[in-house]
Amino acid sequence: MARPRKFEEERAVEAAMRAFWADGYEATSTQALCEATGLGRSSIYNTFRSKHDLFKKALTRYMDVKTANIIEVLADGSRPVRERLRTVLGWAAEPGADDPAGCLVVNAMVELAPRDAVTAERLGKDQARRLDALVAAIEEGVRAGEIEPGRDARALAHYVISTVSGMRVAARGGADRRTLTSIADTAMQAI
Amino acid sequence: MARPRKFEEERAVEAAMRAFWADGYEATSTQALCEATGLGRSSIYNTFRSKHDLFKKALTRYMDVKTANIIEVLADGSRPVRERLRTVLGWAAEPGADDPAGCLVVNAMVELAPRDAVTAERLGKDQARRLDALVAAIEEGVRAGEIEPGRDARALAHYVISTVSGMRVAARGGADRRTLTSIADTAMQAI
DNA sequence: CCTATTTTGGACTGATCAATACAATAGGAG
DNA sequence: CTCCTATTGTATTGATCAGTCCAAAATAGG
């Protein structure tokens, strides 16, 4: 056919994702994306149409991975529901070894949601997925007698998402693991 | 002496503050700041040395006002402590009529804290003030028997701050008042 | 009125932005 | 080997960025 690609698209998206995650959308220049991915400008613009499109791919990748993890642990019928919820909160307290501080979804919601309708909609769709998984788990917890009957599962689910967001903001501000863990522990008492 | 100023510095800082609050630091151009404040470039650079300095003033103003409110309500000995805490959470659920969505402190922590040490330090100082006010109120609540004895006041204070941050992120993402109120209500159950 | 001094408007600066143009390159298909 | 085509590196685009310059304007003090 023709000259083959020298790079893997997935690796490039992963690298771009981490750059956006660390510095935010506006503060990440296309030059920085070239350096982060190791690609030239042509390869980036040839593969992804624009900085914004690359960001969309990066955000999508982030959401797919993280949300899949959440859905998986929340659906794990072999563990008590409260333990599953505590695991989700725990992830927000113990960040990956060399991950940037905070959470790309929270960062994007703060920086872009109010002025980028496309991104806002994608964030909304992702949040709906996490919300559904939480509601299902919480309702299971109610049936199992782990969670007080009569509690509004949807309200609790929103509460869990909000708590994780708050912890991500705190982490972004430099909060240490102990502080984050104490927040997670406290938050569990409302459930 | 000389030609007098035609504008009030406070009004300009207020206008700039709202611009940064709505769009973020990077996405707010100096041109946009001119339009928001109604000043010319010369006046802005003559009065505030740079975009970054103007942002610092705007952020300081925001923190001073908001934190003063929080400290005031938390120190109001005429009301039950839990009511005072609920009021603070309530502010995060019912935003000002024509305020931008979310919270400038949360936005700055997300966008700037990891890469702007000066801003990070100022945010840290402000958070310490809010933390102290919360700790004092919570300890008062414990003494008054409103809050279970033996609970870690500092951990609870961090939890309240994190909850407010989470709600601000949700608001930034477009959450409605009902959802935010339900989060505040749920959060109170951990206290 | 006149001068000293500050503010103001608007043109301008070099740097950097996202994005494009294009020729050189590389490799599979024939 | 040769051609076709996609990829790549580099130079370049026009726009916009934050910030500066300077002359005109304005006013309080003398």
From TrEMBL, chains A, B:
DNA-binding region location: 29-48
Pfam families in the record: TetR_C_13, TetR_N
Stretches assigned to coiled coil: none
InterPro entries noted in UniProt: Homeodomain-like_sf, HTH_TetR, Tet_transcr_reg_TetR-rel_C_sf, TetR_C
Alphabetically ordered keywords of this record: DNA-binding, Transcription, Transcription regulation
The HTH tetR-type domain, residue ranges: 6-66
PROSITE patterns, per database record: HTH_TETR_2
Keyword NAD tagged: no
Database matches in PANTHER family: HTH-TYPE TRANSCRIPTIONAL REGULATOR YJDC, TRANSCRIPTIONAL REGULATORY PROTEIN
Record-given protein name: TetR/AcrR family transcriptional regulator
Native source organism of the sequence: Actinomadura meridiana
